[in-house]
Each structure stands twice: as C-alpha cells, then as structure tokens.
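User: Can you predict the 3D structure of Energy-coupling factor transport system substrate-specific component? Sequence below.
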Amino acid sequence: MHVPVLLPWTSAVLGVSLLAVAATRLPWHKLRDDEEAQRVLGIATMALLLLRIFNTHGLAGVQLNFIGAMVAVLMFGPAFALWALAVVSLVAWPFGYVWLGPGPDFLATAVVPVALGWAWSRWCERRLPPNLFAYVLVQGFVGGALAIAACNLAKYLVAVWLDMPGAPFYLLATPLMMFGEAFLCGGVMALVVVYRPQWCSTFDDARYLRPR
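Assistant: Sure. Here are the predicted structure tokens for Energy-coupling factor transport system substrate-specific component:
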C-alpha cells in the first residue's frame, strides 16, 4: 500500500487548524480552580487512550478500535473532546496504535465522530422530550453507535481511495462495533448522570430531571 506523501501532512495541518479553532472555544472556566473537574478530564483522557489497546493489527493492515468520542462530547463538549482525542492520537502514535499516522487518525477517530456526535446531541435536545431516558438511550446509546459508524465509514472511503486490500473489513466490522460502542457510551453516561451528574457538561438537572 502506498500512502501519498501529502496525506499525512495535509491531514496534520488540517487537524492542527481545527484544534486551534477549538482552543478559542474551550470553556476554561469549567476547569479553573476546580480540581475535581481537572481530575475527571485527565482520567477520561487516559481511559480513551486505553481503548486503543483493543486494535486488530494483523488483519490486512486494518485498524479497528473503539473511540469513546460520544462520551467525550457529552461529558466535556466538542472542544474539550477534540483536544482529549488529539492527545490520544499523539500518545498512541509512537506505539503504532494510530491509523495512517497521527493526522489521519485524528481526523477519522476524533473530528468526524465528534462533529457528528455534537450535531446529534443538538438535534436530540431540540426534537426529543427532555427526560433521562431520552438522554441516555438516544444521545448516549444511539449517538455512540452513529459516531463509530461515521469513523469506520471515513476509514473505509480513504482505504478505497488508497486501494488498501483490507478496505471492506471497515464496513463488515461496523455493525458489531456499533453495538459495542453503543453499550460503552450508553452505559458510561447512565452511570455518570446517576452518580456524578456534575461531571457531565451537557446534562442539566432542571431540564432532564425536573421538566416543566
């Protein structure tokens, strides 16, 4: 497989540009003088990194892994989610747990699912009744499934463009990975909103627990 020289450089420039834009929108006030919030963000980033352990390296060069992007979006918002997942791609890079390099990996496993996850979350808030069931099941469970599907679809399209022999595996694995990612995201969000709702930036007690 020959990867065009411009692909890693172009994707890296695009990724850095998106992170720069996200940096201007980071709600730093949520972390300032709040040690608990700082610990939660750090632990969550480490947990996202550990998901990279579950890869399939030996399958025709295919890189498949759970991403947890929807959890990051719901807990921290899109800007912090992008930065947390950028750290994952950067730290995983020297160990070979990235897809076609840190730039393409960041775009496929962070930018695409975070953008879709945030759009899905906003749509759910506008269209669905404000209750806990809708938040956990639709935003967390369904949102997680959609996020991993978008990630794998992006990888598939690039793999087809590069004429990678294992390209079809990205689509074949997607249905099963959607269930796994959905249960991961839905389960995590259910635990968070029940036991530590203050950790979740998109969860509002007044909206979901005491609707008008």
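The domain at 6-208 is CATH 1.10.1760.20 (Arp2/3 complex 21 kDa subunit ARPC3). The radius of gyration is 17 Å.
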